Every structure is written in C-alpha cells, then in structure tokens.
Automatic annotation (TrEMBL):
Its cofactor is pyridoxal 5'-phosphate. Keywords: Pyridoxal phosphate. It comes from Micromonospora echinospora. Pfam families: Aminotran_3. Gene3D superfamilies: Aspartate Aminotransferase, domain 1 (3.90.1150.10), Type I PLP-dependent aspartate aminotransferase-like (Major domain) (3.40.640.10). One of its GO terms (molecular function) is transaminase activity. This is Glutamate-1-semialdehyde 2,1-aminomutase. PANTHER family: GLUTAMATE-1-SEMIALDEHYDE 2,1-AMINOMUTASE, GLUTAMATE-1-SEMIALDEHYDE 2,1-AMINOMUTASE 1, CHLOROPLASTIC-RELATED. The keyword Transferase does not apply. InterPro entries: Aminotrans_3, PyrdxlP-dep_Trfase, PyrdxlP-dep_Trfase_major, PyrdxlP-dep_Trfase_small. Belongs to the class-III pyridoxal-phosphate-dependent aminotransferase family.
C-alpha cells in the first residue's frame, strides 16, 4: 500500500506552478506529447494565423497541446497523426447521449439534407420536434429554438425583461451561463483567477459587487447573489420591484454539490414565485441528464423559463432551446399584425435559428432517447457508480484524493480535493487546485483518453462498459504516476 503525502502545500499558486513545470517528469511528458501529435501542433499553428475562434484557442480553457481531430465515431476519435482516443470530452457533452455520428441520426439527417430547406423557412419537422420536446419536458408549455446555450440565456433574459418591463437581472456568484454580457459577470472563479491570487469581493448589504470576467464586456448594473438561500431571498425581496428575472444554474460547475445547491435553488425559486419575479433555470448542462425532465423535474425546482443546450442538439449541429410558460414566450410571437407588434413584442431569432438540419438532428437524437426509456438512465447511472466505487477504493489504498465531481449521471470532472463535499462555493473555490486537473488532462492524453483542457467525463450510451473501465484505468494510473513524483495534490 502506498499512502500519498497530502499535507497542504503552503506555497503560492505561482510558486507551485513554477516548481512543477521545472520537474524532469513534466518535461518528459511535454516531449512525449509533442512527438505524439506533431501534425496536430503544426496544424493548430497554421490555423491560428487565420482563425481565432476554435475552442483550442479559447482564453481560460485553451489546452496546452491542441489536438486536431480527423474523424470520430461512437466513443472514439482519431487525430491527424493517426492516434486513437476514447473521447471523454464528447463535444462539451453534446455527443454524450449516443456518441459521435450514431447511424440512426446520420441516416435521418442525410435523408433530410437531400431536400433541405436550409434556414429561414417553416418546415413540417419543426412541429414534430416541438411535440417531442413537450412530450419529454411536460412542465414546459412552449419553446423557442435557438443556436446555443449562450443564446438561450441571453434571449431568456430579454423575454423576462419584455414580460415584466423591468431591467435588473440577478444571478448567483460563480455560475457560468455562457459568454453573453449578462452571463459574463461574476462567473466561475477560474475565469477571474484563483481566489488566493484575486480574492473574492465582499458580500455586502446589496449583494456582491458586479465583476466582468472578460475584457471588452461592459460592466452592467446587476444583482449578484451569494450562495446563501436566506441572504439571496432577502436581496430578491429588496429589489423585487426592479428585477426582471433571477438566473440560476441547476448545478453550478464551480460548486458541483447538489446536496448543497438544490435546497438553496428550490427555496429561492419559490421566493421568486411569491414575489412575481421570473425565475430562469439554466439547464444547458443538466437538461436530459437527470432524466428527460432535467434537474427541474428530478429535484422539483419550479421555474418560469428553462434554458437547454448541448445534448438537445444532434451531430454537433447547433441547436438550443428555451422552454417554459407560454405567457413569457408569447413576447416573441407575432400578434399577426406587424404594426400591433411595435412596442409590444421582442425579436429573439437570428438567420440560422431553427434551421432544418439542426432540427432534424435534434429530432432524431431525442427520438432515440425517448425510445430508450428509463433503461438508458439506469445504464448510465450504473457506469458512473462503478467509476465512483473504483475511485473510492483507490483513495483508500493510496491516500491520493482523486475524485469525480459532478452532477447527474452524465457530467463530471476528475480532480483532486481533500474532501467529498464543501459547505460553500467560496470554500470550494479556495480549496481548488487548478494545476491538478491541467496536468491530469495531459497524463490522460498520453494514455489514449481525450479531454479538451480539463479532465471532464461526459458519458451515456456513448461509452461501453469496457470504455468506462479503460478511462478509469487511465485516470488511476495517471494519478499514481503523479503521486510517485510528489505532485502537490492539495493546497490550503
């Protein structure tokens, strides 16, 4: 038995980073990956000269060794160097239901493409998708079809403002709601820097000072709520006459402990209902991952609008949705008289909203999910339970604090934390070791498991039981190697 030294490292994050990066085993890892994916690295440099928006170039999330993928099928990727990987990233989870290019979806989209109306037309398939969404998510009365989760959050905010005639928007500290201007305030702590470098702002009588995460984003007047149900409810009550809406993550990525977050959300949602403040539930990550009714149905969280993205699409073709109460969504629906619409309606669609092929892919994929029934979720939950069991055994054997932190059966992140759970968002943020997941990602890469820049684990029928075991083997073997090299797993 090998028990790792997990005494908290008291050095600054910069000192820890400099020390780890200077160690020979890290240099060997970098050299191996550079050799392994020479064509990927060269292609990334060439693309960088022309295009800035690929995900491998994103600020805050860019991988140190960008991978160029030549083809994908099921749970597997093949890069331009000929290396094959088990895909744990699965397009930010967008392909986690059935993996890359499920034949049934591909064939349906191919057949539709031969007579596609493209974008900008009403197609009969839109009715079928709308009916299917209502069947799967019965608490939503109507839907708006959009392109991305970021779109969904931005448009849901606009709909709430149109409905209430108010401007102020509230959100919880640390929640990631895409990259729109409203969403980019007080987002996940890693976008602002580690709390030990940039301390959290004070929690005052008017909430938390709004902070923009990205340059170029205007600092808006917003109400930033602490992760404290009583304090948040008091602030909402104080500003109720000015609030257009409250936006909340069904499961906050930066505090992924539903035993803590769900009671808070439920209490705040009911308080909003009492005060007549629209409550918007961000289900971009959790939609269809706690069952087809999402976190709202699973945890009984009432909301006026629900935002969906990622797995609501198919084949990576862009599609997102807002579902919810008809009275809020009607603000985007014409009265039938253009002159009457002026001053009473709002515009939410763009050129590619509800395009034919995206609708086709979504309809085919969600039809497969409906037909799979509860057994689909039982299979996925069993896979994740097996991962959690193996990691618990590994922690007991070695003392290395390797965990899968996440929400629902579909989404989680491998990382190193001293405890299974944390009482507050700020406590978890201060305890997070961003270097651990970054190094683990590269260690997995050389073991044939792909994630983008963090060791995310999205799963479903995309992965076979053998795939899940192989990912577990790779994660555990990587953590063992890190332990042998005295990696600083825990920071105080």
């Amino acid at each position: 038995m090998t028990i790792a030294d997990t005494t908290p490292d008291t050095r600054t994050p910069a000192e820890i980073l400099a020390d780890v990066m200077s160690q020979p085993w890290v240099g060997d890892l970098f050299a191996e990956l550079t050799q392994r994916q020479q064509n990927s690295m060269a292609l990334a440099e060439e693309v960088r000269e022309h295009v800035v928006t690929n995900h491998v170039f994103l600020p805050f999330h860019a991988p140190m060794f960008p991978l160029a993928v030549a083809e994908a099928s099921g749970s597997r990727l093949t890069d331009v160097d000929g290396n094959t990987y088990i895909d744990s990233h699965l397009g930010f989870g967008g392909q986690s239901l059935f993996g890359h290019n499920p034949p049934q979806v591909v064939e349906f989209v191919r057949e539709q493409a031969l007579r596609s109306t493209g974008n900008g037309y009403l197609n009969p398939l839109e009715l079928k998708l709308g009916e299917l969404l209502k069947e799967l998510i019965p608490h939503c009365e109507k839907f708006a079809l959009l392109n991305s989760g970021t779109d969904a959050i931005a448009i849901a905010t606009r709909l709430a403002r149109a409905y209430t005639g108010r401007r102020l928007v509230a959100k919880f500290e640390g929640c990631w709601h895409g990259t729109g201007d409203v969403a980019a305030h007080n987002t996940s702590f890693f976008a602002h820097g580690h709390p030990k470098v940039n301390p959290f702002p004070e929690i005052g009588p008017d909430g938390i000072a709004p902070l923009t995460a990205f340059t170029g984003v205007p600092q808006l007047e917003m109400l930033i709520l602490p992760h404290d149900a009583a304090a948040a409810s008091k602030l909402i009550e104080k500003y109720a006459d000015d609030l257009a809406c409250v936006i909340a993550d069904a499961a906050c990525q930066s505090w992924p402990f539903t035993d803590q977050t769900v009671p808070e959300l439920r209490e705040v949602a009911h308080r909003c209902k009492d005060l007549g403040v629209p409550f918007i539930l961000d289900e971009v990550l959790t939609g269809f991952r706690f069952g087809t009714a999402g976190a709202a149905g699973h945890f009984d969280i009432p909301a006026d609008l629900h935002c969906y993205g990622k797995v609501v699409s198919g084949l990576g073709l862009p599609l997102a949705a807002i579902g919810g109460k008809a009275e809020l969504l009607e603000a985007a629906h014409t009265s039938g008289m253009p002159l009457t619409d002026i001053g009473s309606k709002t515009f939410v669609v763009n050129t590619h909203s509800g395009n034919h092929l995206s609708i086709a892919a979504s309809y085919a994929s969600l039809s497969m999910l409906r037909d799979a029934g509860p057994a689909f979720y039982e299979r996925t939950e069993a896979k994740v339970a097996r991962v959690q069991s193996r990691l618990a055994d590994f922690r007991a054997e070695t003392g290395i604090p390797l965990r899968l932190l996440g929400f629902g059966a579909f989404a989680g992140t491998f990382g190193f934390t001293a405890r299974d759970s944390y009482d507050t968002y700020r406590e978890f943020g201060a305890a997070a070791n961003p270097l651990g997941p970054a190094v683990l990602t590269l260690m997995l890469r050389k073991r044939g498991v792909y994630t983008l820049s963090m060791p995310m684990f999205y799963t479903g029928d995309a992965h076979s039981d053998a795939d899940v075991d192989a990912v577990c083997d790779a994660v555990i073997d990587a953590a063992r190697e890190m332990g042998r090299n005295d990696f600083p797993f825990v920071i105080p």
